[in-house]
Amino acid sequence: MSLNETPRGSRLHIGLYGKRNSGKSSLVNALTNQEISVVSDIAGTTTDPVYKSMEIHGIGPVVFIDTAGFDDEGELGGKRIEQTKNALEKTDIAILIFSSEPDSSDKEWLALFDENSVPFIPVINKTDVIESIDKLKSEVIAVCQKPPILLSAKTGEGIEKLRAKLIDSVPDDYGQRTITGTLCSEGNLVLLVMPQDIQAPKGRLILPQVQTLRELLDKKCLVMSCTTDKIDETLNALSSPPKLIITDSQCFKTVYDKKPEDSRLTSFSTLFAKYKGDIDYFVNSTEIFDKLNENSRILIAEACTHVPLKEDIGREKLPRALRARYGQNLYIENVTGQNFPDDLSSYDLIIQCGACMFNRKYVMSRVAAAKAQGVPMSNYGVVLAYLSGILDKIDY
Fold first, then answer.
1. Is 59 within the bounds of a domain?
2. What is the pTM of this model?
3. Displacement of CA 285 from its chain's centroid (Å)
């Protein structure tokens, strides 16, 4: 990934929802001006959600999610609907598409939008073929309590109105959050400690490091970087202590012991805990560590589906540190990607990775699920800082 690319996890996610053959895929293609989704008159053509990254002038980088119809049928259709519901957890703005009279399924999805705090835009598609547009418009208003945008994905009519409405519907706080927040500003010297071990991708940096580095450059900070074994030499080469040191969480204690007294310390994962999730809940959840024992159950959730190598943090390092503290019989389960359990009640603690591959909406949906089921939830960086005995000494 180059410094000019915006990863999917940092983009506004716009989901298209509606019944089969309502024209979701055609609308995605019209909005993106590309043949992204397969279009067919056969109901149920779209199965798994299709994700397309692009730019919208006035918003910036976005991801369109083309979903399967929520009126799908049969056992396979039920699985498709579940995938559509899962996509809702990532959706920042929903487009609800009508091409026929609303029914109970539309009302159910409106309730899901409300339950998940997802703003939505009602749209009537296929205006080039619908005979009673005024009647359908009245029916949609009655159900959605707001006027729909009339358009035709086939002819392009109304597409620009929808783009304008999308811009108006962007959440007020979108784009306001930053990775480093108020920890540093223009002219500050920032040291990045980035061990290039077996887990580091050959020839490039991992995504959190790239995103943080780019933000620091945009802030006009003075950036220095080194690997863990070069901390002493790097600090000696500097004429003044760095304002902030950002380290890989696995090196927290090593860097803390070596850092200048005046330098603030944090980690990439800890910064992402605040950027993507609920840092207060993550920190407060560490209170559970006083109650855990070898019979406890811990879920470790990784965003990416990489093949774990030797000394993988989620598969080896964290479990080893936890079992050293609570006993070798401690139950630890790992899940990757979107494989997050609906029922969390059997776990005593959930530990989420930095989630650089997820958008904030998706991480917060997991936090909401944990809170609703009364399960403590934390993050790699926060947990490693706690286990190192320095959680109260780091910044975020």
1. yes
2. 0.86
3. 20
